[in-house]
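Sorry to interrupt, but I need a hand with the structure work. Please put the record directly below this note.
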Amino acid sequence: MPAAKPKTVLKAVPDAAPPPARSSSSQRRILNRDRLEADIAAVAVRVFAECGYEGTSIAAIAESAGLSKQNLMYYYPTKQALYQRVLDDVLDEWLARMESLADEVHDPRDVLRAYIQAKLRFSREQPWASRVYAMEVISGAQLYGEQIQRRVVPLLRKDIDVFEKWIAAGRIAPVNATHLIFMIWAMTQSYADFSAQMALVLGRKQLTRKDYDDGEETIVRMVMAAISLPSEPR
């Protein structure tokens, strides 16, 4: 029998009615609840990544978090509510990194390198979060498509507008900005979703920091070639 996975034991916040809103104890209760909800979401992201939405149960997440199912459902009444919270957290962080691309003032070379670095760092540091998001999109984004359209599309359009301004100013070669961004997403995302396959091909248990650095340099060179800029200043 394989060894059981260690549980992340979370300390539940008592369910008693809160004291008056202005009291310090009430503020502590709110902070404690926020902290516990975040801790539950941090445990849930790995379970969703390993089992998928359909294969995940509230009971399994509660067990991994060291909580009773009833206690977890006090904070997240349904699996979909918890899944929504997990994807909200993933998208918040991903979009924060994506915003760095919408910068027409700085050198396109520096902007694009920083963006690729940020996306690869997300794949390296948050592989479970990256996989949950990818699994939702691969399944057709049936549960999260509206949020993706509402939040990702406007920022993508801003990024494309920056590319068009760079092209108009002669700072980069003409390029289909939409599909170039899609390619950057695909290349950087693969270091989270297919890291196990990459490690097997490379003959090791997991990717190393050097693997990510080598991947970054290769992606940067490819992107710079696409926009007719050298990867380093001349």
Observations:
- The domain at 1-77 is CATH 1.10.10.60 (Arc Repressor Mutant, subunit A).
- The chain has a mean pLDDT of 85.
- DSSP finds ten helices and no strands in the chain.
- The chain has two domains: 1-77, 90-226.
